[in-house]
Amino acid sequence: MKIRTKIWISDDHEQVIFGNGRVRILETIQRLGSMNKAAQELKMSYRALWGRIKSTEDRLGRKILVTHAGGGRHGGSSLTPDGKNLLKAYKQLRNEVVALADKEFEKIFGKNQDDT
Prior knowledge:
CATH architecture: Orthogonal Bundle
CATH superfamily: Winged helix-like DNA-binding domain superfamily/Winged helix DNA-binding domain
Radius of gyration: 17 Å
Strand content: 5-15%
């Protein structure tokens, strides 16, 4: 037996601002340098991927991604400094919440729950 922890950040209307799905999107865009390639790898439509990014930007009130038109070598997408900071801060928060949940689970349920 083990605890599963999932967190996300939402606005005052319970609309998702950021979570693990957005992390995967931004990390994939960062690695591939392209929203189109990221959408293909994540098996999402470009429109769905762009919609999630746009909704996050709208709810935050700042850009997390910058796009450069042109295709090939001249085009592409990259994270803004705000986007990089958001990604880093969220991952830090997630890691700390998971560590705390694991510690509390162990304290309450005991160490060797895999044996039950």
